[in-house]
């Protein structure tokens, strides 16, 4: 049986680098990250996050409608409250919380 390579791919490294840079209290959607990198798409970013996202602030990556990662909603919302992420109900307020990738 072939052993799966557990090291992140170069694309995965780029995705994880972007996620690490998302400021506290801000979010990016899977599609935002793909668009920022100008490669892949939301599903590819989601795959990276599911395989290697545990070591980065994963709760700052959301669906386009601001909903949290499925199965981790409670943890996500708790972290958003702690970071004062703008919210609308139980989702991130994408108009106010979306980060555009600009560090300046």
Automatic annotation (TrEMBL):
Keywords: DNA damage, Methyltransferase, Transferase. GO terms for biological process: DNA repair; methylation. Residues 10-71 form the Methylated-DNA-[protein]-cysteine S-methyltransferase DNA binding domain. Residues 85-104 are annotated as: Disordered. GO terms for molecular function: methyltransferase activity. InterPro entries: ATL_DNA_repair, MethylDNA_cys_MeTrfase_DNA-bd, MethylDNA_cys_MeTrfase_DNAb, WH-like_DNA-bd_sf. Signal peptide: none annotated. This is Cysteine methyltransferase. It comes from Spongiactinospora gelatinilytica.
